[in-house]
């Protein structure tokens, strides 16, 4: 006998398609928000340059930040991290939806909507915490006269070289390898961190997000060197993260990049 499916059952059968479409929309609107200037009052075209180090304009005294500007900067960082990092996290998110759905078919879990949204929320919260820290660092560097307030890039070669050296050393460190392993192995991560329910999904998403932050936080800090709103660096770092996490030989590529960063940082420090 053929029975009609409820709307919930139809959604459950198409959950991965819905999740994939949702992630695409999130990434699309995040990139659009970044490209139009992320509320800074300038477009990224005005803050983009292929020159490295970026041109050292005269900056003068830094203006104080009011509460509204703090919010704009924090939101800018968070949306930018969503645009850059969600694509590389998509395989883990989709695999989570698939595993949860498979467990439902076997009767191991209740037949409710897969709590993938909770997983994504937890993941994004980890990058929100990073964004708050990055915003605070941006304010500190700007007040110290080491960053251009309008162009949002380093005006100090020692600062730029130090960021590159630190990122390069971290790229070849054991901690980087541990975090990258979790990001490159979604099945291993899910099997070793699995928790049931929405709260469990949120906690898993947060844990996966923390591994991603641990993997990429110094790469993202290179935006201070090349320009926080410099599309050349934003796109370049986003593509590099995808390559490092998703393609074969990602470990080797990451270590090789670390050596190049150390060399570039050393050049800036000596120059």
Describe the structure.
The protein is an all-alpha fold. The protein has one domain. It is 72% helix and 0% strand. It contains eleven helices and no strands. Helix 3 runs parallel beside helix 10 and helix 4 packs parallel to helix 8.
Task: Please describe the structure with a list of short key phrases separated by commas or semicolons.
globular, single chain, 271 residues, 72% helix
Please outline what is shown here.
With 271 residues, the protein is mostly helical. 72% of the residues lie in helices and 0% in strands.
Low-confidence stretches: 1-5, 7-12
Shape: globular
Tally of extended strands?
0
- How would you spell out the order of helices and strands? HHHHHHHHHHH
Mean pLDDT reading: 87
Domain unit count: 1
- Rounded to the nearest angstrom, the distance between the terminal CA atoms is 79 Å
Spatial extent as radius of gyration: 21 Å
| SS element count, helices | 11
Helix content: over 70%
Strand content: under 5%
> For the report, how would you describe the main beta sheet?
none
